[in-house]
Amino acid sequence: MHITANMGLDESEEAAMALTLPPKWFSFAAADGLIDALFPPSCPACRDETATGHSLCRACWAETAFLSGRGCATCGREIPGLGGGRAGPPQDFHCDTCQAHPPRWDRGAAVFAYEGAGRRLVLGLKHGDRLDMLEMLAGWMLRAGKPLLAGADLVIPVPMHWTRRLSRRFNQSAELARAVCRAAGRAEAFAPALLRRTRRTASQDGRNRAGRTENLKGAIGLAPGAEARIAGRRLLLVDDVLTTGATLNAVAAVCRQAGASAVDILVLALVSFDEAPYLRSA
């Protein structure tokens, strides 16, 4: 079949198009097979070969501390000994940390603990330009936070200062939020330009809860016209890692001041206070 017959093309255009079309003997299936043979799928966490793409190897699956979703309704942390069956714990159950330091957001969910293969995945995305993992990670985040996403009017990533984004080339929180919205069929909810970092902050590494909060004072602001879009809306904030919650608290506080009706959070990983007890201190 001559595919250009009814496309209104002249002879020169048809000739140019013919040069760009694959020959009749070309098989896309065979090409895919050749690509898989030359570049076999590998585990995003350790680079070992896997049977299919966008999947962890058996060892990394076992090493990833996925959360059950039956923990704290505010931050998503699991509570040792907490049961609840398929229905999970009561919807208003809060962990000791969230009771001692009430967050500025309402509800939260997370995918896995920031340890083992989960930690390698986060660092690969954040510092290794591993954007190829986004589809897999977004699928996990969607399952963990599906009720939160379903009720959100806007999905807002934690903003990054332009100088840091320039050096990293992308904001990993924004890419996660974009991918989650795409996976949920909610592309219209993605709102990356409503918040901004008003100043570049020093690294949070090594700071306790109070130090992290102090470091972020005045660092989050609204973009022009953002208040009109936020007022009266339910928001879902997306970030890669939740440690003490200082960053998400700062973002949530700005959103509440702008009139948001509710603020929820969805993160990829949670840092364990058992591994860094100094983070608990006020």
Note the main attributes of this structure.
11 helices, alpha/beta, 6 strands, two-stranded antiparallel sheet, Rossmann fold, single chain, 282 residues
Structural description of this entry:
- This protein is globular.
- It starts with 10 loop residues before the first helix and ends in a 12-residue tail after the last strand.
- It has eleven helices and six strands.
- Residues 1-22, 25-35 and 84-89 have low confidence and may be disordered.
- It has 282 residues and is α/β, with parallel strands linked by helices.
- The strands form two sheets. A four-stranded parallel sheet has the order 1-6-5-2. A two-stranded antiparallel ribbon has the order 3-4.
- It has one domain (58-280): Rossmann fold (3-Layer(aba) Sandwich).
- It has helices spanning 11-20, 28-38, 58-63, 96-100, 116-127, 134-150, 162-168, 172-184, 209-215, 226-230, 246-257, and strands at 108-113, 154-157, 195-197, 220-222, 234-242, 262-270.
- Helix 6 crosses helix 8 (172-184).
Task: Please provide a brief summary of the model.
The chain is of the alpha/beta class.
Topology diagram in text:
Blueprint: H1 11-20, H2 28-38, H3 58-63, H4 96-100, E1 108-113, H5 116-127, H6 134-150, E2 154-157, H7 162-168, H8 172-184, E3 195-197, H9 209-215, E4 220-222, H10 226-230, E5 234-242, H11 246-257, E6 262-270
Helix pairs in contact: 6-8
Q: Could you state the order of secondary-structure elements as H and E? A: HHHHEHHEHHEHEHEHE
Under the CATH scheme, which architecture would be assigned?
3-Layer(aba) Sandwich
Give the helix level as a range of percent.
Answer: 25-40%
Report the count of strand segments: 6
Strand content: 5-15%
Q: Which secondary-structure class do the elements indicate? A: alpha/beta
